[in-house]
Design a protein that fits this description.
- The complex is a heterodimer of chains A (157) and B (239).
- By secondary structure, chain A is α+β, with helices and mostly antiparallel strands.
- Chain A has two domains: 59 residues, no CATH class; 79 residues, Glutaredoxin, CATH 3.40.30.
- Helix content of chain A is 39%, strand content 11%.
- In chain A, strands 2-1-3-4 form a four-stranded mixed β-sheet, with helices on one face.
- In chain B, strand 1 and strand 2 form a beta hairpin.
- The longest helix of chain B is centred in the middle third of the chain and has 17 residues.
- Chain B is of the alpha+beta class and 239 residues long.
- The chains are: A alpha+beta (157), B alpha+beta (239).
């Protein structure tokens, strides 16, 4: 789809206009763009760079510097493995390893069929029920180290 | 724009009484007075970012050393450019630069004309204090004249600054963060596909190591024209 006919680009254009085409509003624009598109694709980044009259390399550099920005589309489901102190002690790294082996992806990646994205978090703030994983919006408490995905595996499609 | 009034300030470097203008940095005043401070990312004619931390100095009354290339002078400050603490810190910084990437002088094209190499000779660094990470990055040799080898990069950002400030193209920038940081062209595209790169070669000339080099030149033949930027700025005149 071309950028002229896509409604999402019109929405982004409006936001950029509201921010006055300011070069230093780049972060704000990137945030909004991710909100609209769900991720920051190369076309989106190029569009932003042209609109704000910034070099491509600068926009790409900023987008890759902050871990909050995704450059690839998100999967239909998402698992966040907590890597906070309490979860780490209870073996969060083993859980992560198990999930990575099961789906053949590393943390921060999405499976090729776009069914699942795997992420890590610094702490989700529920240390009393560690180790914790967050599946979509649900928090799974006291996850088993041997079979961390026992009750959610069938819903990942 | 309101111009700040430039005042003359007096202070001491290594016990020597010196004077400088208030818009000057410690490094500039030290060089004017013939006091040598080792630098890496600094290049006369480009802006200073203090990314390498090689030019750190101690200031009386401050706990930690600060980079002299970005620190403005203050009236009555007492600067120490070399002490056992500073020397140890500089050696540590240098050995971390070595251990982060893949610096093998014997197979490197700029062997003999490398500023990382000459700096370690200058600071008498006999070995690395930190274990080698031996990270491997892909080499970008798509450009018809130049090669970008991130394995030799020390992330001094000279190439980025020269491209932005002197050439005005800003084709290069830093990608990512932490250990995986790389110098990229446009949207991490191969160098040959970069639309903003003008192939002027200034980034190659200012690179202190063998991260950016010309093709079809054997080692020891490589001469990096690092002073070219200083010349250019001088010839263009002060704005």
């Amino acid at each position: 789809m071309s950028t002229a006919t896509d409604d999402r680009y019109n929405a982004l254009e409006k936001i950029i206009k509201k921010l006055g085409y300011e070069k230093n509003a780049l972060l704000e624009v990137l945030h909004n763009a991710q909100g609209i598109f769900g991720y920051l694709g190369l076309d989106t980044l190029k569009f932003i760079a042209k609109r704000l009259q910034l070099p491509y390399s600068k926009v790409y550099g900023v987008a890759t510097f902050y871990s909050n920005f995704r450059l690839k589309p998100k999967g239909r489901h998402n698992i966040v493995v907590c890597a906070g102190t309490a979860c780490h002690i209870k073996g969060a790294d083993k859980i992560l390893q198990k999930i990575e082996q099961r789906y053949g992806i590393k943390a921060g990646e999405t499976t090729s069929d776009e069914a699942l994205s795997l992420l890590t978090a610094r702490c989700v703030g529920t240390c009393s029920i560690a180790p914790v994983i967050v599946f979509d919006e649900d928090i799974k408490a006291n996850v088993s180290l041997e079979n961390p995905l026992c009750d959610i595996e069938e819903s990942i499609k | 724009m309101i111009r700040e009034k430039v005042r003359v300030k007096k202070f001491t470097i290594d016990g020597i009484c010196v004077t400088g203008q208030s818009n000057q940095t410690i490094l500039e005043v030290a060089r004017d007075n013939g006091i040598e401070i080792p630098t890496m990312c600094h290049l006369k004619g480009l802006s200073d970012v203090g990314s390498c931390r090689m030019c750190i100095v101690e200031i009386e009354g401050r706990h930690e050393p600060i980079p002299s290339c970005t620190a403005k002078i203050k009236e009555g400050m007492e600067v120490t450019t070399s002490s056992p603490k500073i020397k140890a810190a500089r050696e540590m910084i240098l050995s971390m630069m070595f251990s982060e990437r893949y610096h093998t002088c014997s197979t490197c094209v700029v062997n003999g004309d490398c500023q990382l190499q000459s700096k370690s000779v200058e600071l008498e660094l006999s070995h690395s204090f930190t274990p080698y990470l031996n990270q491997r990055f892909e080499i970008d040799a798509s450009h018809k004249n130049f090669v970008n080898d991130p394995n030799k990069c020390i992330l001094c950002t000279r190439c980025i600054r020269v491209c932005d400030e002197i050439e005005g193209a800003h084709a290069l920038d830093l990608f990512g963060r932490g250990l995986g940081t790389r110098v990229i062209h446009d949207m991490d595209e191969p160098w040959a596909d970069s639309t903003s790169c003008t192939s002027c070669g200034k980034c190659v000339y200012v690179c202190p190591t063998g991260a950016l080099y010309e093709k079809d030149i054997s080692e020891e033949e490589i001469i990096k024209k690092r002073e070219i930027v200083t010349e250019l700025v001088r010839n263009r005149g002060q704005k």
